[in-house]
Amino acid sequence: MGWIVYGDRVKIALMDSGIGLLAAAAAVRRLRPDADVVLSSAPESMPWGPHSPEYVTERALAVAEAAAAHRPDALIVACNTASVHALPALRARLEPDLPVIGTVPAIKPAAAGGGPVAIWATPATTGSPYQRGLIREFAAGVTVTEVPCPGLADAVEQADEAAVDRAIAAAAALTPDDVRAVVLGCTHYELVAERIRAAVRQPGGAPLVLHGSAGAVAAQALRRIGAHPAPGAPAGGTLTVLLSGQEAALPAASLTYAEGRLLQAVSPAR
């Protein structure tokens, strides 16, 4: 496969239950300012975490097929829950015609720093066989603390700043003082990364390292389709927003976050 360079049309779709896809979408735009971006979500069913794997798979397939109808070059599953439960079904339905890129918590790079490490995740993911398997595979010999964050994804989705602060404070209280890195195990959390950094105090003021997945999945999507990153390219491309399959504007809560404001500046698709 040859490289797709600036000037060749690139269209990347992203899916999530809600606005957690903003971080990865913004990362795509930073790597390819000329890319067309499709955002597909189903906020009325958010959050997916408390639901059964069968429910998550059904909803994820519907959201993904709405995105696929716009004929993107690749689809990013910008949701940890959907990646855990629905990725095999999504790939079976859409590949090889449409490459599907899942999201995995950044436990491996966090553990490479030697730890101790905390993993902030939804209550459904915390302690799950999936997350425990990643810890065994990538963080053997490293001290890892799993920190449940009830209500944080919902608060981010609703842009409820007081609720965000309460949820972050509760998770910070469960995070050991000697933790040097925090894995953001839900895509929504990346939208409030700096507030998390400010809440987790380090002995002696040492810098806390946060590990998200947005940049990695954006880069992987471009690699899968042979698209060369061109962060210096002139801005262009279009933005399509799908809410439960229907074209719409970005949800108002999106504009609370820098990532949403970056995407709002993109021309809407016609």
Automatic annotation (TrEMBL):
Coiled-coil region: none
Q: Which InterPro entries match?
A: Asp/Glu/hydantoin_racemase, Asp/Glu_race, Asp/Glu_racemase_AS_1
- Key word Isomerase present: yes
| UniProt KW Isomerase keyword | yes
Q: Give GO terms: molecular function aspect only.
A: glutamate racemase activity
Q: Which PROSITE patterns match?
A: ASP_GLU_RACEMASE_1
**Which keywords does this chain's UniProt record carry?**
Isomerase
**Which BP terms does GO give this entry?**
peptidoglycan biosynthetic process
Query: What's the protein called, per UniProt?
Result: Glutamate racemase
